[in-house]
Amino acid sequence: MAVMDARDLERCSAAVTLSDMEVFVFPELMYSLVLANIMSPRIWLWRDDPWFKGIRKMKPYRRLQRLKQYIIDHYVFNLDLETWGLTNQKRELARFAPFLSPEEIAQSNALFGYQGDTYYFDIDIRTHFGLDKYDSDVIPYWKTETVEAMDAFQHKEGYTTGAGECVSLSALYAAALYVVAGVPLEQVFMMATPLHSQNFVDVDDGVLTNNRRLVTKAMWFNGTQISGQARRALENERVTIVSHPSGWIHTLYPQASIDPVVYSGFAERLRAYLTTPLTPEILGNFLRQNPRCHQCFMVRWPIRGVDRYVTLEQAFSFEQDSAYKVTDNTREKLLAMIPQETFAMSCCPNKIVLDDIEEFVRERAIDLSDPADLKALRDRIGDACVCGDEMVDQLVRFCHTEPRLPSADVRFVSAAAPLALTLDMTREEVIAHLESLRAHNETADMAFYAWRDLSRTPAAPFIKAAMERNPVSVAALAEASDDEVVARVAALPDISIYDEDTRLAQPDEVWTFGRGDGFEKALLVANVARSRGAGPLCLTLVTDEAVLTDEVGAEWCRFATCKRPAETCWQL
Fold first, then answer.
1. pLDDT tens column, 545-568
2. Pairing verdict, β 247-250 and 241-244
3. Is 0.85 surpassed by the pTM of this model?
4. Among candidate residues 514, 527, 532, the one with its CA nearest the CA of residue 470
5. Which is deepest, 35, 165, 250, 517, by most CB within 10 Å?
6. Cα–Cα dist 199/208, whole Å
């Protein structure tokens, strides 16, 4: 097998570990993970679950809802710093220097200095993610997991289901939308910001997959706390990468592989999703999300023919335990539930009656792009209790978020062979089709490294990743002697998290999930040994055993194995 040059070896090994920083530097890897999940037997087995019976006959959004509930029931969000261990900026910047300069990486990656807009400065990003307890140079290996690794979290202490971080969940959603829900991959756009990853699904008015949840256009503008959290990334961050079956575009690279017509259409659809006209209901939703304004508004309600008033803050508080809302046509039912003694006999001085502002918005049909309409609204609100200028400015931003997408002013270079996966393909046909594209489509090629199939990829990238980027097992066994390391690894259950005999787990996956095939266990022992200066080592598949020896042939360990990588002698 041909020897890889250093750049290809680095990129292919990054496809194995798939940390967030690696996906940032090698954007083709984001969709390679989606394809790896599509090739996995795990998601195809979901189709046999009674929960998904008849899903292909449902309307598109109903399919998404069905899938969402399954993911909520089977996976939790995980961003624990300890899961995949720590590295440091100096080491990683040196590693990525041939591809991007340190200055470029720092401009757009949260692990290397980027903090986004004011929101992220306010929360202090290192404190927010728990990094403040480490030296400022220390950063986590936030690794993106395949569906098998996500499933394996159920074996980790403290978990009862699968788990994954935001890129893992985005890739899981994209794959499951295609395999289970029958949504064409062409309708799914993956978006990565420096601190988050989510998908825009082009069905109905558009739907965002946000970690485990779905956000429709109506939800985006409903003013709830959950929606406020979902809005943060697109409101406060640049979109670094957009990934799609036709290719990708990256904010720092001068060329892109995504279809420019597809990208233009996506940008238009996303902007439409993030924009809504001002209506009385949207005004109320905006106020719900802005507690500072609550004290300035009162709601009018007739009791026995006489107008009474309740503060907006009180009205919103009664929403918490009710199916009714202040902001839609169920307001009357909500107000009727509020004890009469809560209402005041008259409107407090300097307060604004919400009903009057709603009527003004309704009658004038406020156009938020018209300066005259905005001035009229500011004047109507006044400055007695809240600054009219400030409130209207915030309202405009609530009703329209301009996504900061990668500029289309780049050189578009399409893949020589498009992915072109159709909904009628079987899993076997998908794998065969992707394999036929490898020489002409880098995303398809990298998918086999992300899939960890050692019958279809050389061992060198897998070995490089295993020996250089698996610090958790090294730290966990730091106090154990060499013999104790072998004994503790041998005691783990002989079960790989990967079902196929040609796919392998990395050492930290074996340790974190407490299980592994003998070949994987031997690789874990080698990882610890190499960290202590031992080596070079040789891992050999001998009939049904994995044997780890040093350079003079002395044996470190020997484990029974069912794995069958194409290369049977690995130099470590």
1. 999 999 888 999 999 999 999 999
2. antiparallel
3. yes
4. 527
5. 35
6. 5
